[in-house]
């Protein structure tokens, strides 16, 4: 019974933490410490009370009511005493199947979580702080879990969270939906953070494992949540579509012995067809809104791969066109590099190499592993062995991830054998 | 809420301004000041003389030590400030972005530690 209770409580925590916290934050103008204290009171009370009298019908609503009251209690205290243990005054008896006696103005608002998203991803917070705060406040991930996922020390991550929450209050980062003139820019920052969480899981930049699936899952959860909160935004749909399409390859990307398997060599029967179908459906829906954007374009590129029978039979010409569109919207050397790969498939490695050399002579991406490994691949295909070798070695110097290093060493020894 | 907007700029670049550029800058500052006052957000503000006339004071073990110059050798120095009233950080940073030298230097936005925060 005890175990069952804990599970129910944990499930409630996972599912409702963000919306519970968001509602409380609205009542105390974004004071995270206070809202968290009230919520933590409520979860503690729940464990005690439910152990005695069993699970209520609606655990989430029960906790919301208790947390709301605890916040009221704490707000009645003078400011300096609000966070003290004693401020959580003894609870009046709370009936198990109570009528929901939250004052109407404390009812959850539809926009609460959206406010929370925009606050967590405010540009006055560092990107690391935005990521940590979003995962913690919106998804209820604890500091230890986030620290483990990002391979940083728990104390570092805890301090990052404390500092971010303090700044929200002390600098008065507004707990609100951004006004119209800031909305697009701020939404861009939110989408970037969601993509970053997913991508950090997808391409673990350091460590022994190539992917950290739990971060991909959290990134997807965030993207789904955004889609729920902003159901008609084409870039939100585009982002969710992109993540689903990338994630569909998860099982095919890592081979035996934890080896990185490139898209060109993946066993496509391992791709998740449900994710592909959902991604393509969302993408069509987004494109139908007639407001193209960079996530939609990236999703469109991913969808071209998703429907291709194999690497060679991929519609490279269309992919090059999509990259052209992306370069117009969001020109960057990384996009130019990916475009070069598609051009090489469409028109041969020499064309690809020419484009890469252009990026090199622009002096950009000097320390970018994939620039050197891509250049090395083209040189290898053109049978320019010594140059290919030097380029692989340069890429190897830049690889932080053990699997990437193994992969590049493999390429290098193939080159020697050939 | 009150915020202090600290205006940092490169003094050697400032010194290189032509008289015309300097006049333009002063006019831009005048316009900014007026906008701030007009919106009822201006509390205080001043332009500082360059760091070549700064003096730094430290008291250690009861002894007063004075050094000629600013407390830190950096490229950008504090050249002036505004204290403003703003609803929240978004409003404060909006005002900061309108300070003429935000285009060449940097504006640090610092919330004031109010009594009720203690």
Account of the 3D structure:
- The complex is a heterodimer of chains A (418) and B (118).
- Chain A is an all-alpha fold and 418 residues long.
- Chain A folds into four domains: 2-84, no CATH class; 113-210, no CATH class; 232-314, no CATH class; 324-418, Serine Threonine Protein Phosphatase 5, Tetratricopeptide repeat (Alpha Horseshoe).
- Chain A is 68% helix and 0% strand.
- Chain A has 19 helices and no strands.
- Chain A has helices at residues 2-27, 32-53, 59-76, 112-120, 127-139, 143-150, 154-170, 180-202, 213-229, 234-247, 250-253, 273-287, 294-307, 316-329, 333-347, 349-361, 369-381, 385-398, 402-417.
- In chain A, helix 8 (180-202) runs antiparallel to helix 9 (213-229), helix 14 (316-329) packs antiparallel against helix 15 (333-347) and helix 16 runs antiparallel to helix 17.
- Chain B has 118 residues and is α+β, with helices and mostly antiparallel strands.
- Chain B has one domain: Alpha-Beta Plaits.
- Chain B has helices at residues 11-15, 19-38, 89-98; strands at 2-10, 42-47, 55-60, 63-68, 76-85, 106-111.
- A four-stranded antiparallel beta sheet of chain B has the order 2-5-1-6. Chain B has a two-stranded antiparallel sheet with strand order 3-4.
- In chain B, strand 3 and strand 4 form a beta hairpin.
- Chain A binds chain B through residues 79-80, 122, 124, 170-174, 178-179, 182, and chain B through 1, 87-90, 92-93, 109, 111, 116-118.
């Amino acid at each position: 019974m005890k175990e069952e209770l804990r599970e129910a409580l944990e499930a409630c925590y996972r599912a409702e933490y963000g919306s519970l916290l968001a509602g409380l934050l609205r009542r105390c103008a974004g004071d995270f410490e206070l809202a968290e204290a009230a919520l933590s009171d409520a979860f503690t009370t729940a464990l005690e009370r439910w152990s005695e009298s069993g699970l209520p019908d609606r655990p989430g609503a029960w906790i919301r009511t208790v947390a709301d009251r605890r916040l009221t209690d704490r707000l009645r205290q003078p400011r300096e005493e609000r966070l003290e243990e004693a401020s959580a005054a003894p609870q009046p008896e709370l009936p198990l199947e109570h009528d929901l006696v939250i004052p109407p103005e404390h009812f959850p608002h539809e926009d609460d979580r959206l406010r929370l998203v925009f606050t967590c991803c405010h540009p006055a917070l560092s990107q690391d702080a935005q990521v940590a705060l979003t995962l913690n406040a919106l998804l209820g991930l604890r500091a230890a879990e986030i620290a483990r996922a990002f391979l940083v020390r728990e104390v570092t991550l805890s301090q990052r969270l404390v500092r971010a929450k303090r700044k929200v209050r002390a600098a008065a980062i507004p707990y609100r939906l951004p006004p119209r003139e800031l909305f697009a820019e701020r939404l861009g920052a939110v989408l970037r953070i969601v993509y970053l969480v997913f991508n950090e899981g997808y391409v673990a930049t350091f460590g022994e494992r190539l992917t950290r699936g739990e971060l991909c899952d959290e990134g997807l959860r965030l993207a789904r949540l955004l889609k729920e909160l902003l159901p008609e935004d084409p870039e939100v749909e585009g982002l969710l579509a992109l993540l689903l399409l990338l994630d569909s390859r998860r099982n095919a990307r890592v081979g035996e012995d934890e080896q990185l398997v490139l898209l060109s060599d993946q066993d496509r029967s391992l791709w998740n067809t449900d994710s592909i179908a959902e991604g393509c459906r969302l993408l069509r829906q987004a494109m139908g809104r007639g407001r193209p954007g960079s996530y939609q374009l990236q999703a469109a590129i991913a969808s071209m791969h998703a429907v291709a029978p194999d690497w060679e039979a991929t519609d490279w010409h269309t992919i090059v066109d999509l990259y052209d569109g992306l370069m117009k919207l969001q020109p960057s050397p990384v996009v130019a590099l990916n475009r070069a790969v598609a051009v090489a498939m469409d028109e041969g490695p020499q064309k690809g190499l020419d484009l890469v050399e252009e990026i090199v002579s622009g002096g950009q991406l000097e320390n970018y592993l994939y620039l050197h490994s891509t250049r090395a691949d083209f040189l290898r295909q053109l049978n320019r062995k010594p140059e290919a070798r030097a380029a692989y070695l340069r890429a190897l110097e830049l690889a932080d991830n053990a699997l990437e290093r193994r992969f590049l060493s493999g390429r290098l020894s193939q080159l020697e054998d050939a | 809420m009150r915020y202090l907007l600290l205006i940092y700029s490169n003094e050697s670049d400032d010194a290189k301004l032509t008289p015309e550029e300097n006049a333009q800058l002063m006019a831009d500052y005048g316009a900014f000041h007026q906008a701030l006052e007009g919106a009822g957000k201006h509390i205080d503000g001043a332009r500082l003389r360059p760091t070549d006339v700064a003096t730094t004071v430290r008291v250690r073990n009861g002894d007063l030590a004075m050094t000629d110059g600013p407390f830190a050798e950096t490229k950008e120095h504090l050249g002036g400030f505004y204290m403003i009233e703003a609803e929240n950080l978004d409003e404060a940073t909006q005002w900061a972005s309108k300070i003429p030298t935000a285009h060449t230097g940097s504006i640090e936005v610092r919330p004031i530690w109010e009594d009720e925060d203690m």
